[in-house]
Amino acid sequence: MENLCYKRFIGQISKKEIDTLKNLLLEKAVLFWPLSSIWGYARKNDILHCSLSSFYKWVRVVRPELFSNKFKKLRKEGFNTSRPNEVWHCDVTQFVTKDNIKSHIYILIDNFSKMILGFKVADSVDSSVCASLVKEAVFKYQTSFSKLTLPDLFPLINLNLSKESSFVHLMTDGGPENQGELEKVIFENNLPINKITAGKDVSFSNSPIEAINKITKYQCLYRQEIKNREELLKKLNEWIPIYNQERPNRAGRYLLTPAEIYQGHSVDSELLKKQSKEAKKLRYDANRVASCGVC
């Protein structure tokens, strides 16, 4: 990096920007964000402006240990939603705290934005906990439900649904936490929920929520010493707002957070172009007066 001539190649990232990149990685890499999310965070917050490929290149120079060459197998292509509240996913995952007590974390997400709509922590697998989670989310977000439009994602299982009604698909697995009380609450409260079982009613798996479970554990829970269930609840209450409101994700092409996608925000392309142009000018000015030690 020291051998590059800034005067001859004035378009390259400047020394000041490299220092900014290093500080950014020190701050965000410890949160175990993916590099793409760190890049999006830097751009949308006017911290650093460069292409994603350039960002990867310079991260490889300054922090090569952040890269992994593990083989990734090809995966079956899933379905695509076109708006929030089209499909929700619900699941429960286990976590054992340092006092050797097992807790069950119930999480509900929106497929389109990957926003966490709600969560609960319980001491057992219980359908009433899942039912309460779904019911609270419906009352909180129902005003933003969309009218059913065709072609629908799962037309063969929607034949009994009114085309004029607003509803959301709730995809779950076949576990006991997703039956009994959950189905009873949906029926008795006439909730606008069309419950479908992954791998049974449809061929798709419930992988979107499983991915969020993994993110929650590996980017938050496993990185900390969590003594008991009370502290587990506290950590989740701290981390989930960061995930929803600060951490850009792939659904927003790393420039929007889950909450921004869910609320219908879009990337301000003109502002990004303006900021990139200004950053480019500052880069040229900085590199023109910099010395590579040779020329």
Automatic annotation (TrEMBL):
PROSITE patterns: INTEGRASE
Signal peptide: none
GO molecular function term, any single one: nucleic acid binding
Entry-linked Pfam families: rve, rve_3
Every Integrase catalytic domain range: 80-266
InterPro entries, per database record: Integrase_cat-core (IPR001584), RNaseH-like_sf (IPR012337), RNaseH_sf (IPR036397), Transposase_IS3/IS150/IS904 (IPR050900)
GO BP terms in the entry: DNA integration
PANTHER family in the cross-refs: TRANSPOSASE INSF FOR INSERTION SEQUENCE IS3B-RELATED, TRANSPOSASE INSO FOR INSERTION SEQUENCE ELEMENT IS911B-RELATED
Protein name in UniProt: Integrase core domain protein
Organism: Leptospira weilii serovar Ranarum str. ICFT
